[in-house]
Specification:
The complex is a heterodimer. Chain A is an all-alpha fold. Chain A has helices spanning about 5, 20-50, 65-95, 105-125, 140-160, 170-190, 200-235, 240-255, 270-295, 310-330, 335-340, 345-370, 380-415, 415-450, 455-465, 470-475, 480-525, 535-545, 560-565, 600-610, 610-615, 635-645, 650-655, 660-665, 670-675, 705-715, 715-720, 745-755, 770-785, 795-810, 840-850, 865-875; strands at about 740-745, 835-840. Chain B has a domain at about 25-50. Chain B has helices spanning about 1-25, 25-50. Classes of the chains: A mainly alpha, B mainly alpha.
């Protein structure tokens, strides 16, 4: 087509408006607004649980994970999908001068997208049928219809473009074509392959999809709107079409290559990680080019354009710059090491989807709406909606970024995990508060597009005014067939390169790491490792269904902070039973890769039934629905889930040390793998390990508030007063120790905190900073009330000694050290009376009642009251006190 | 290795495109054409749309 043809492409004899099916613009616009309001409600309900975890009724449909799935899929497919479709029904005829393929197809596409994808997708995830893959949570049956929808969209919108020459395509056309084509390629890759391959391989594809969903679907569609609305509203051409095309190809080259930056410092081959990091940096450069070009194209429109559509578009452009620079920076190892998994990431994703893409989507809808002759239009309401959304999203972004930095600092400092949760509470309140202006903003858009006089949009367009188009008319007539040929060829080369880069991304960052990992897994998997039992597999399905992986990662990264807190970094072979992977991308709670054996089953049940009963500051939702009314009455779901939790890290632990030695011999040169092989790190720092040598803690903890940390970490079981009657104590067996009735030596408390107590709910606290452990020791020692003065006669001690030697020494040892000849056979180690001295009353109580959950039985049927009292006095003499 | 391949291939492609733009004036003119044509089309659309205004929307049969 020559340029002369192009300039008269619009049919002269007909009304141009006839090319646009305004009813489909209207229908998708309304569907977009309805779905975004529903998705926001899901988001608000999810956010409320961060500081009101018990507000939700105890039915699983309202479970945190399910609503989280519904929130993100609703935003991407419901809101943005419909908004982009609405815009394309307006833009494609204007860009091409042709109608879309078929109005009937449009009705089918509308029905499919909303009533076979979005609505059933929501119902399915809320009823527990989902897939635990980030941005791909709708189950595979819905995925099939999404792909069908994308195909229909391609059939609907692409033919009008293909009838024009490449050299005639305006940049918005390129973005629409690119978005439709690449999403059609990327969606099956990201939604289906992770379901078929395990662990790290699965994560590699998920990483690609997380970024492709934003980079190949959301961003192209949003940028097509920015490049369309800006000149169409100002009446001036964009600053540089050359730069816009440079940006277009740059984005399509680099976006697909970014994905693995979600798994930096992971078991995925480092070469793939470095590739993603390099692509992320280059992407940042390209975005600066794109945004510069867009902002220069807006010159003259004023700081606050009168046209509301353009105003949204301008803010979208600015948000795009911020979010892209933030993303490119976060991918770099120095920053990633610190802020990854924090709310910084959530701030980033909200600014991308709710800032950049949403503002573009609203700008596109308003622009199209203004040109629907019969549509109502209320400029005042839309103006208010703009300010409400700007305020709401700005608050949310700044607030979550600050929360992320606070969490990063807490995690790096080695402070107890709950401290980061506690410090985040204020920010989580503000985040939920920011939903108020956002929701009102969307409601006002709804109102603004359904109220006001018909045709008021046209009046608004005229009132906003436009620059002269004479310049465009003059310049559009130039060009020659030779020039067109050159440009056409360069675009073809770029198209080929774009496809090659996408294939490269899937190959280099998906299949190649998968192959490397396959080889590594085959070579390094220890012999006879345990898979999951049936119960554990069912538990895993519950874990996936309820979105546990969205708060608890299962990937210990190759960073010092992770290793100190969670144990040895995750090796590739450890995930070979995880299809799809459960690596996660956010940590609200701690990593669970090696959670097995860190807590007793009764503690796990109590934690699932009433999380705050054993962890007072926890924000985990309750899963009481898995129980018959009490933590000690778990139903099958609870048993399965706990069985799965107990299996986490088991394979690596059982394989050690042979498994690690195998890797050392094969990959001795790999400095990253070496980080995972330090033998002292192969157990989780909370795992009871009586064999470990206890470092003597010189820190006094004078500046650390022991009661504060005791309330945070210990009070759930031991009670705030140390009496052993914390809210969770009734469900634990053995019950937590009554700390007010025991003297402890510092050595004993250091040992307990470092080693934990095997087969009880008392974990080790090796991950705590020395100062905190020391403060806790001081706090525990302060609980003991002074013993009343008791006069003990010699005969009583002799009787006590006889009773002790005859009945107690087999377990507690002749010297009271707790290492009698039978001690090794007991699940819970007998007390070491040299380092802990129960009060007389406590000893009598124990001898009368025994200790549930241990081998200590009641002695009332074998010992008289006098003998019990005598042995009570006798064993107190073992106590060595402070040496 | 992968990162080098990404950086080098991207630089070659972008560099080639920029070089073409620098050296060929006709390419520069041609590559900018779509933005003018797009504006023409938009103006044409808006102009006709304004002419038809709220009076009639033939395709959709709306008032």
């Amino acid at each position: 087509m020559t340029n002369a043809d192009a300039s008269t492409r619009l049919p002269a004899g007909n009304l141009t408006a006839e090319l646009i099916d305004t009813r489909l613009v209207f229908a998708h616009g309304m569907a977009a607004l309805v779905t975004v309001l529903i998705a926001i409600v899901f988001g608000i309900l999810v956010s409320l649980q961060f500081f009101m975890p018990d507000y939700a009724p105890s039915w699983l449909t309202m479970a945190w994970g399910r609503m989280r799935y519904a929130h993100t899929q609703g935003i991407m497919l419901g809101w943005l999908g419909n908004a982009f479709l609405a815009f394309m029904y307006h833009a494609v005829p204007v860009l091409t001068g042709r109608q879309v393929t078929s109005p009937l197809l449009g009705r089918w596409l509308f029905g499919l997208w909303n009533f076979i994808v979005v609505l059933p997708g929501w119902l399915l995830v809320l009823s527990g049928i989902s897939q635990p893959i980030e941005w791909a949570e709708f189950p595979w049956i819905v995925d099939a219809f999404v792909i069908a929808g994308l195909l229909l969209a391609a059939i609907q919108f692409l033919p009008p473009f293909l009838k024009n020459g490449l050299e005639d395509l305006y940049v918005s056309s390129w973005y629409i074509i690119g978005g439709l084509v690449f999403t059609l390629l990327a969606y099956p890759m990201g939604n289906i392959i992770p379901e078929l391959v395990p662990g790290a391989e699965s994560a590699a594809f998920t990483g690609l999809w997380i970024h492709d969903a934003v980079g190949l679907f959301v961003t192209p569609m949003a940028l097509s709107i920015l490049y369309f609305v800006t000149p169409a509203t100002t009446g001036r051409p964009i600053f540089s079409h050359f730069l816009s095309m440079l940006g277009f190809w740059g984005l399509f080259f680099f976006y697909p290559l970014n994905g693995t930056h979600h798994y930096v410092f992971s078991a995925i081959p480092m070469a793939a990680q470095m590739g993603a990091i390099a692509a992320s940096a280059l992407l940042g450069v390209v975005v600066v080019i794109v945004v510069t070009n867009l902002l220069l194209s807006m010159r003259g429109a004023g700081f606050l354009p009168k046209d509301i559509g353009l105003r949204f578009v301008m803010l979208s452009t600015i948000f795009y710059l911020i979010v892209s620079v933030q993303g490119a920076s976060q991918a770099q190892m120095g920053l990633n090491r610190v802020v990854h998994f924090t709310d910084w990431v959530i701030a980033h994703s909200h600014l991308a989807m709710l800032g950049f893409a949403t503002f573009a989507g609203i700008g596109g809808i308003i622009h199209a709406w203004q040109r629907i002759p019969w549509a109502r239009y209320n400029e005042r309401a839309l103006n208010w909606s703009f300010w409400l959304l700007v305020v709401g999203i700005s608050i949310m972004f700044v607030d979550l970024t600050m929360a992320g930095l606070v969490q990063a600092e807490a995690w790096q400092s080695g402070a107890p995990w709950l401290e980061s949760v506690q410090h985040s509470r204020l920010y989580w309140h503000i985040r939920t508060g920011s939903a108020l202006p956002i929701t009102l903003g969307f409601l006002l858009i709804f109102y603004g597009l359904l109220s006001g006089p018909q045709g008021a949009g046209s009046a608004a367009v005229q009132a906003a005014g436009k620059g002269s188009s004479q310049d465009a008319d003059d310049k559009a007539a130039t060009g020659s067939p030779q020039q067109a040929h050159l440009l056409r060829m360069s675009y073809r080369a770029a198209m080929a390169a774009g496809i090659v880069f996408f294939i490269l991304s899937v190959g280099l960052l998906g299949f190649w790491p998968g192959r490397v990992l396959d080889e590594q897994i085959a070579a390094t998997t220890p012999d006879n490792i345990f898979g999951l039992s049936s119960s554990e597999q069912r538990g895993r399905a519950i874990y996936a269904r309820e979105g546990c992986a969205y708060c608890h990662t299962q990937q210990i990264r190759y960073t010092d902070a992770d290793i100190e807190r969670f144990g040895a970094p995750t090796l590739a072979w450890e995930g070979q039973f995880d299809t799809p992977h459960m690596w996660g991308t956010r940590r609200v709670g701690p990593d669970l890769s090696r959670a097995g054996g860190t807590r007793s089953a009764d503690w796990q049940y109590a934690h699932l039934f009433a999380p705050r009963s054993v962890v007072p500051w926890s924000i985990m939702p309750s899963y009481a629905v898995f129980f018959d009314g009490a933590a000690d009455k778990p139903r099958l779901e609870a048993r399965d889930l706990v069985a799965y939790l107990e299996s986490l890290g088991r394979a690596r632990e059982l394989a050690w040390p042979q498994g690690d030695e195998k890797i050392r011999s094969l990959y001795g040169e790999d400095k990253w793998l070496q980080m995972s092989l330090d033998t002292t790190l192969n157990t989780h720092p909370a795992r009871a390990a009586p064999e470990l040598e206890v470092p003597r803690n010189a820190t006094t903890g004078v500046d650390v508030d022991g009661q504060y940390y005791f309330n945070m970490l210990c009070a759930g079981c031991h009670g705030q007063d140390g009496s052993g009657n914390g809210p969770g104590s009734d469900w634990l067996s053995p019950k937590p120790r009554n700390l007010t009735q025991h003297d402890y030596t510092r050595d004993r408390l250091e040992s307990v905190l470092w080693q934990g107590i095997d087969n009880t709910a008392m974990p080790a606290w090796r991950d705590l900073p020395d100062g905190v452990r020391s403060a806790l020791i001081g706090q525990v020692m302060s609980f003991k009330a002074a013993d009343p003065e008791v006069v003990v006669d010699q005969q009583q001690l002799i009787t006590g000694e006889n009773v002790y030697r005859e009945n107690c020494s087999q377990c507690h040892g002749d010297d009271g050290s707790g290492v009698g000849f039978a001690a090794d056979m007991l699940p819970v180690a007998p007390s070491d009376f040299r380092h802990q001295r129960p009060s007389v009353g406590e000893s009598v109580r124990v001898l009368n009642n025994g200790i549930d959950g241990t081998s200590m039985a009641p002695w009332t049927d074998r010992l008289s009251e006098d003998e019990i009292l005598a042995v009570t006095h006798y064993l107190r003499n073992f106590y060595e006190g402070e040496q | 290795m992968i990162s080098n391949a990404i950086v080098i291939s991207a630089l070659v492609l972008a560099g080639g495109y920029c070089l073409l733009w620098l050296l060929r004036k006709d390419f520069r003119q041609q590559v900018e054409q779509p933005k003018y044509r797009f504006l023409q089309q938009v103006n044409q659309f808006d102009g006709r749309h304004e002419e038809s205004g709220v009076k009639e929307d033939k395709v959709n049969g709306q008032p």
